[in-house]
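chain below, 303 aa
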Amino acid sequence: MEEITLKIRYIAKEHLLSGKVDKILGFSKGDFPYESCPVFISDIDEIETLIWDSFCVNNLSKYLIEELKTTEKIGVFIKGCDSLSFNQIVQDNRINPDNVVIFGVPCNGMLDPKKIKKIGLLKGIIDIQRDEENVIFVIKNGENNILAKEVKYDKCILCENPNPVVFDEIIGNKITKKVDQEDKFQDVEEIEAMSADEKFDYWSNQFSKCVRCYACRNICPACNCQKCIFENVESGVSSKAKVDSEDQFFHIIRAYHVAGRCVDCGECSRVCPEGIPLEKLNKKIIKDITQLYGEYDAGLSSK
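prediction:
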């Protein structure tokens, strides 16, 4: 991935110096080896902080909505799932695609720090080397070779669009990948097999964990209303008590609100501090839409 990083820095510098873009949206390293953070750059001196590694998991498309209100043109480095969200945001008329230059980066899947921690390799990471099948963790005591699927995010394992579906320029080689449709909805079918009472108990237990932080809504590219009903004091919603029925109301309404527009990027589940499997709710709706109306994948087109 070092080669991709160097290309990203070169492209960012060329576009900023030439005035083709006013800002670059990409990733820089966080405080920990397993943390890569979204960053806007307009200063040439900051170009060297741009990186691309196995932890660039954030879906960058939604960040464009607010930034484009004050910036004329932005260059952004996006993965396959980000590109689906970009198309959806354009379709929702929330941004003008003419104000964005897209640099597509094929993605082999990002690594989940929680899974890495479970196998005891999170601390002391010096370097990470990988290919499509394996990940080598270089630590103080040597190297550990792990199958990539054991430490990838679940959403990345099941991702059907590792290559950006829209771009002005692509960086790196495209990836060939096929996902078994039976695997795609396996977790949904496990819940479908439950009795009505079991389903109610399952989701009641999950939603009872909600602290109403709205992280799922804030990160979701499909949740892009100019004014969310849950922030409209006149609606009375924001003043409702923190009780199970209201938590259920929030999540179910939000799921239906993004129905047909969810690109299954899985960001809602990733950022949930309580670990609520919100992607299962969204995938259930995606599965039902497919069965009722035919094959459809949100974000494949901006029209």
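The chain has 13 helices and eight strands. The mean pLDDT is 91.
thats it, cya
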